[in-house]
Specification:
Elements: H1 25-37, E1 40-44, H2 51-62, E2 70-74, H3 84-92, H4 102-109, E3 116-120, H5 129-137, E4 143-148, E5 157-161, H6 175-178, H7 182-194, H8 202-214, H9 219-227, H10 234-240, H11 262-271, H12 275-284, E6 291-292, H13 293-303, H14 310-319, E7 324-326, E8 336-338, H15 341-352, H16 357-376, H17 384-393, H18 395-408, H19 410-426, H20 430-443, H21 449-464, H22 468-485, H23 488-504, H24 508-522, H25 528-545, H26 548-560, H27 565-568, H28 582-585, H29 596-599, H30 607-610, H31 613-618, H32 622-639, H33 645-658, H34 662-679, H35 685-702, H36 705-715, H37 718-727, H38 744-754, H39 759-766, H40 770-784, H41 789-799
Parallel strand pairs: 1-4, 1-5, 2-3, 3-4
Antiparallel strand pairs: 6-8, 7-8
Helix pairs in contact: 1-2, 7-9, 8-10, 12-14, 12-15, 13-16, 16-18, 16-19, 18-19, 19-20, 19-21, 20-21, 21-22, 21-23, 22-23, 23-24, 23-25, 24-25, 25-26, 32-33, 33-34, 33-35, 34-35, 34-36, 38-40, 38-41, 39-40
Length: 806
């Protein structure tokens, strides 16, 4: 180096890459920032995460800031920590000469060097880490960037965990939507290298999306998968990735052997673990979606002799990047850790080799059955949001437990599924819940209270989806079995759900007797939540049949039991709304689209937000109705209620319709129906009837444009729809939704198309080329979802783009 008599400038020995560097822009910017303020930067992450390639790119991009050179030192072939210093010396071009110790010579040589040394693959040489600290202590401006599956744990070390590449949203799996995603770009380019004719298109976009997600965006895995395109189209490749490790082989021969297959890459890290951490990793393979410290202790340590404390083992697995910390969930057992799919597959192979495998799997199922049943008892009243969130966090684990039990203990699987039915209804997993419950009811023929609970849960989910025929068949079976077993609570809940189904399908007069019988069965059972549910539907039946006197009776029953909405959801006991007749205030005046599962989660709803919403709108109390809706919508979103959000949107549509904003009303109605379609559920008949009555004047006013406006609402995402509903802006501020997506020039072109001008005439009028106008017209049609100019012209007329006299 210049200050030590070395050559004026050391050579730059960064290996030149033969393939393009894709993505990682954010990571590179952050690494540059960290390198500016740190002299020891360690890039950590699992094998195959792209640490080496990212570090090389970092070195190339910051080279101008290191006039004495950027040096790459490959440590993967070095098997002994004692050889680290000689490897560094060789990498920077320092010859081994003289009698001085090599550490002293390195410290002297690098004392004032403005250089960056890249140390690649340090994880198996951690014992040599103190030598790096000694070099840094003896130098002034020297910096190290290290790649390692484990941090060096040195003072002053800045760790940067290299994340997997970005993966696409599975809900938007079109070629245009996923083409810019890093992992898809990497897959596409590497696939094209193997098969030049390969292109990303709408036919294969969904398969490629699922491939990159299945591989967790791990760059090495994506590259190995893409190389298989020479033989397998994406759909076939995806099918084979159910067991990925045998497929992900055949990496470039000039790569280190451990990077030519994913199995070898993971085995490299596994080989660096102690015996206890290896056994813990194998046991952790039973988890899906996350592992809490509490669950690792209760499942792994209870089922297998680890030979190490769980916390120590977890720390070792995190250090070797085989587990990674993930976001904590309130009440979910402390810190949580995630495991990449490919690591879990490798760990599952190791678990299969252990004699304790069955015990570990059984322990996992028992733990999550206990969680689901505990949560089921707490999804009513205080703390329900925390429990909903906890079940959401553990949903993958519970699914795995159900799947595992289904093979060997289907009745235990049914017990677990029955406990989950309320969660499935609140969080919108209707189809999955019904499918699982049906299969398990068929697989387990034991007639027990568990079967009754499962039948009732399946019936509730069927009602959510508007399948009243199946719902009544299920509650019929539940009622018969409950009577055979003498299970009063099960029969009562089934009767309530029968009443709910009848109310939701527009037959409230038939519901009353069933709910009344439910209330009789519940007498003396000390189950206030079930009583509140029954009283709720008794009030609903009375409300929709106009039985005001019966409302008062229901009110009295609720007050006698001291039921309040902030405890069990359905009543406020003593509350009255100023200015309303007392007969109309009490009882369960909730509309049927707020079933007990939802109402129990709606502690923040004002009374007017549910039962009296249509009445408020009809009476012209728009401010009261809107205030209730504005409070309800954020609460629904916070709690994750996918079923109730579209119902609240219908309320916003009603408000808009009654305040002379037909376009807004139709668009919000479209949002509601789009959300129902996406969630595979339906709104009850009374809600649809009320909505249609509100929308009738808007449809008459806008004519053929009404359907197009509703279609715009259907296409809006929830993120777009929520601020739109809450904004309460006048009609003129929005016009039609798609208009906001068009540029000024596109709006001009759309208006001229509507006036009947050809593309050539439009080009002449706007001083553009015909080709440019062709492009603008194509963009406008695509953005608006139209297929011809006639549709565009109709939309432009409706949107007010044309002069008044046109």
């Amino acid at each position: 180096m210049p200050s030590t008599g070395a050559p004026d400038q050391a050579p730059d020995n960064i290996p030149r890459q033969l393939t393009s560097f894709i993505g990682r822009e954010r990571e590179l910017q952050e690494l540059k920032r960290l390198l500016e303020r740190s002299r020891l930067l360690t890039l950590t992450g699992p094998g195959g995460s792209g640490k080496t390639r990212l570090c090389l790119q970092l070195g190339a991009e910051v080279a101008d800031g290191f006039p004495d050179g950027v040096y790459f030192v490959a440590l993967a072939p070095v098997g002994n920590p004692d050889l680290v210093l000689s490897s560094i010396a060789q990498g920077i071009g320092l010859r081994d000469a003289g009698d001085r110790p090599l550490l002293d010579r390195l410290r002297s040589h690098l004392e004032n060097a403005r250089a960056l040394i890249l140390l690649d693959n340090f994880e198996h040489l951690i014992a040599a880490a103190p030598l790096i600290a000694q070099i840094l202590q003896a130098t002034v401006t020297l910096k190290f960037a290290v790649t390692s599956r484990a941090p060096l744990h040195l003072t002053g070390e800045q760790e940067f965990e290299v994340p997997p590449m970005q993966v696409p949203d599975p809900q938007c799996a079109t070629a245009a939507a996923v083409a810019g995603c890093e992992s898809v770009r990497l897959f596409t380019e590497r696939a094209r290298a193997a098969r030049p004719s390969f292109v990303l298109d709408d036919e294969n976009a969904a398969s490629i999306t699922r491939i990159t997600r299945r591989l967790d965006g791990l760059p090495l895995a994506v590259e190995l998968a893409a190389a298989r395109i020479k033989l397998l189209p994406p759909a076939s490749l995806l099918a084979r990735l159910e067991h990925s490790l045998p497929v992900l082989v055949g990496g470039a021969r000039d790569l280190p052997e451990r990077q030519q297959t994913l199995r070898a890459t993971i085995a490299w890290s596994y080989g660096l673990l102690g015996t206890g951490a290896r056994r813990l990793l194998a046991a952790c393979s039973v988890f899906r979606g996350g592992i809490s410290v509490e669950d690792a202790e209760s499942v792994c340590a209870a089922a297998i002799d680890l030979g190490v404390e769980v916390l120590d083992g977890l720390e070792e697995l995190v250090d070797q990047s085989l587990l990674r910390p993930v976001e904590e969930v309130a009440g979910a057992g402390g810190p949580r850790f995630g495991m990449l799919f490919l690591v879990r597959e490798y760990a599952a192979e190791r678990l299969a080799e252990l004699p304790e495998r069955a015990r570990v799997e059984e322990s996992h199922a028992v733990a999550f059955l206990a969680l689901a049943e505990a949560a089921g008892r707490r999804l009513q009243g205080p703390g329900e949001q925390e429990w909903l969130d906890r079940l959401e966090a553990e949903h993958q684990n519970i699914r795995a437990a159900i799947d595992g039990c289904t093979l060997h203990e289907p009745c235990e699987a049914l017990r677990l599924a029955a406990a989950m039915s309320r969660f499935w209804g609140v969080r919108g997993h209707f189809t999955e819940g019904r499918r699982r419950l049906k299969a398990l009811l068929d697989a387990c023929g034991v007639e027990s209270p568990t079967r009754v609970k499962a039948l009732n849960g399946a019936a509730s989910l069927a009602i959510d989806q508007g399948d009243d025929v199946d719902a009544r068949d299920l509650v019929g079976k539940s009622i018969r079995l409950s009577r055979e077993l003498g299970y009063r609570r099960g029969e009562a809940i089934a009767l309530v759900f029968l009443g709910r189904s009848l109310i939701a399908s527009g037959r409230p007069a038939e519901a009353g007797p069933h709910v009344e019988r439910a209330l009789e069965l519940l007498e003396g059972l000390d189950d206030p939540a079930a009583v509140a549910t029954a009283l709720l539907y008794a009030g609903l039946a009375a409300h929709f049949t106009g039985a005001k006197a019966h409302n008062v009776i229901v009110r009295g029953r609720a007050k006698d039991r001291g039921l309040k909405v902030n405890e069990y959801g359905g009543f406020r006991g003593d509350q009255q709304i100023a200015g309303q007749n007392e007969e109309d205030v009490y009882a369960a005046l909730d509309l049927p689209w707020f079933p007990p599962e939802i109402r129990e989660a709606r502690r923040e709803f004002q009374w007017a937000a549910d039962g009296e919403l249509p009445r408020l709108i009809e009476l012209g109390d728009i401010r009261g109705a809107r205030s209730a809706l504005e409070e309800a919508l954020p609460t629904c979103l916070e709690l994750g209620d996918r079923w109730v959000v579209p119902v609240v949107m219908t309320g916003f549509a009603g408000v808009a319709a009654r305040t002379g904003r037909p376009r807004r009303a139709l668009r919000l109605a479209g949002v509601a129906r789009g959300l129902c379609e996406a969630g595979q559920f339906s709104m009850p008949v009374p809600v649809e009837a009320e909505l249609e009555r509100w929308l009738a004047p808007a449809r008459n006013q806008l004519g053929s444009a009404a359907a197009q406006i509703m279609a715009e609402g259907r296409r809006m995402s929830l993120a777009e729809a929520v601020p739109y509903a809450l904004a309460d802006e006048p009609e003129e501020a929005w016009h039609t939704g798609p208009r906001r997506a068009l540029t000024r020039r596109e709006l001009e072109v759309a208006a001229l198309v509507a006036q009947g001008l050809t593309n050539r005439r439009i080009a002449d009028q706007l001083y553009l080329s015909v080709r440019t106008v062709d492009t603008h017209v194509d963009h406008v049609l695509t953005k608006l979802g139209f297929s011809n100019r006639t549709q565009l012209a109709a939309w432009a007329h409706e949107a007010g783009l044309l002069p008044k006299d046109t």
